[in-house]
Amino acid sequence: GTPLFPFGHGLSYTSFEYSDLKITPAEINPAGQVNISFRVKNTGKQDGDEVVQLYIRDLLASLTRPVKELKGFKRVNLTAGEEKKITFKLSADQLAFYDKDVKLVVEPGRFEVMIGSSSEDIRLKNSFQVVGTKREVVSNRILFTTVEIEL
Q1: Mean pLDDT, contiguous 10-residue spans, the chain (151 residues)
Q2: What pTM, to 2 d.p., does this model score?
Q3: Beta 27-28 vs 121-130: how paired, if at all?
Q4: Are 119 and 3 in contact (CB under 8 A)?
Q5: Which residues contact residue 11 at a Cβ distance below 8 angstroms, ignoring those fewer than 6 apart?
């Protein structure tokens, strides 16, 4: 069944434009970090808040993985015409899942990045690669994406 409202759905009195998606570096090792930055602009006539959301899809895994996984979000206040740069800092630990041996692992492969205002309103897409050998995550796991906002 299809939900009545997708995750992240909300109403606003203004409109927002997303642009300039950059993923650096393009390749990380299974213990690395990737920075995902983009710009969001209030293109309407009213001040407003936008909840920008980061979704990830593992395109090649040893087990079936979700089509979209929410990995970060941030509420951003923008006055009419204002633009801000958002950067999500995503750790490879956040890509971990339990493999067939029930070990928490990060596997090499390609990961699709989706940025949007809801799970059904994806505005930007790109991808990055995890290279190297499979890594078991055993301790000090990073669980949350940090977010930076710049003008």
Answers
A1: 79 93 98 98 96 96 94 96 98 96 96 96 97 93 95 88
A2: 0.94
A3: parallel
A4: no
A5: none
